[in-house]
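To the wet lab folks,

You asked to see what we're planning to order before we commit. Fair enough. Below is the target structure as tokens, and below that is the sequence we designed to fit it. If anything looks off to you, flag it before the synthesis order goes out.
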């Protein structure tokens, strides 16, 4: 039977792939972000925020992030799984108002890795930070192998265990794979030499956003499915995204990290929707909760957590990197 041999977790926000000296571009994005009242946030920012956003402080956090990515790449290369199942959020890339599922599995045979474009509807589509955060992607499409056999097996297993899973066999031609999956190739798997199974989670767009409890249950059901798959494949599971970002919430980040390390499933499952909401930018924590359910038997090692503040309003990203073995 197949087995899960490794877990990975990585933040994928723009500060992860943009040099610290360019983080000021993200502040400009925050100033026009409709999800927040920038001027109001200035009045509630921590007293030490000016120290938090000193150039040398941001540079040190960026360097810690790059070191953590190297660690994840080394762990992945050492383990050499046969399949990498990646849990990531979809931000109007494959999902839209015509079709907004809670969960969707990609069951195509290949994927095209290339410099992804912003959907024209994005309020940030013309901001320059996208070019910089996406700089390591190739201009010409590069075919990468997917994992349709495992995808189809898990879809059937989940169906038989009362999960209604959406599927897709092709990605939108103008977008390609979503940012959560593109990120993996740009940072820890540049050779795209391990077949990937993208699992897309609707973390942002109500009313069909799954609860934390349902996310954890999906992870558990996926693990059961993998372990029942009549195959000798060794599978790695990765959470791409999170933790808090847009409005950085260190307290929430550290609580989630502690629960992951301690395998405190009840604390993870009981996170209320208001703590995982689009306006605050905490939605991608759901990706880690799905992974936690799948990786329950393994132990998590925190590689790095850095509160990546980037503006006087305390916006930023909880830059989080971990592995399970």
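Sequence we intend to order:
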């Amino acid at each position: 039977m197949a087995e899960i041999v490794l877990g990975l977790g990585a933040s994928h926000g723009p500060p992860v792939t943009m040099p610290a000296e360019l983080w000021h571009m993200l502040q400009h994005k925050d100033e026009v972000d409709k999800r927040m009242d920038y001027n109001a946030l200035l009045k509630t920012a921590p007293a030490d925020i000016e120290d938090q956003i000193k150039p040398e402080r941001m540079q040190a956090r960026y360097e810690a992030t790059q070191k953590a990515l190297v660690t994840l790449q080394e762990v992945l290369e050492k383990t050499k799984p046969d399949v990498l199942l990646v849990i990531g959020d979809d931000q109007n890339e494959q999902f839209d108002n015509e079709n907004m599922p809670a969960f969707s599995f990609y069951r195509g045979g290949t994927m095209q890795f290339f410099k992804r474009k912003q959907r024209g509807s994005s309020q940030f589509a013309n901001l320059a930070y996208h070019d910089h955060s996406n700089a390591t992607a190739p201009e010409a499409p590069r075919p990468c192998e997917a994992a349709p056999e495992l995808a189809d097996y898990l879809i059937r297993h989940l169906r038989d265990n009362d999960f209604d899973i959406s599927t897709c066999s092709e990605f939108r031609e103008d977008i390609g794979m979503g940012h959560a999956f593109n990120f993996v190739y740009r940072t820890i798997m540049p050779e795209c030499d391990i077949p990937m199974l993208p699992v897309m989670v609707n973390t942002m767009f109500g009313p069909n956003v799954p609860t934390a409890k349902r996310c954890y249950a999906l992870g558990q059901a996926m693990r059961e499915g993998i372990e029942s798959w009549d195959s000798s494949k060794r599978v790695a599971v990765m959470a791409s995204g999170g933790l808090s970002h847009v409005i950085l919430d260190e307290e929430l980040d550290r609580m989630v990290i502690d629960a992951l390390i301690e395998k405190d499933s009840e604390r993870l499952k009981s996170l209320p929707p208001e703590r995982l909401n689009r306006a605050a930018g905490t939605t991608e924590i759901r990706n880690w909760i799905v992974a936690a359910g799948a990786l329950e038997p393994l132990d998590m090692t925190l590689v790095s957590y850095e509160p990546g503040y980037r503006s006087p309003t305390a916006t930023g990203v909880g830059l989080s990197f971990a592995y399970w073995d």
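Structural context that might help your review: Residues 55-79 form the longest helix (25 residues). The longest strand covers residues 300-309.

Thanks,
Computational group
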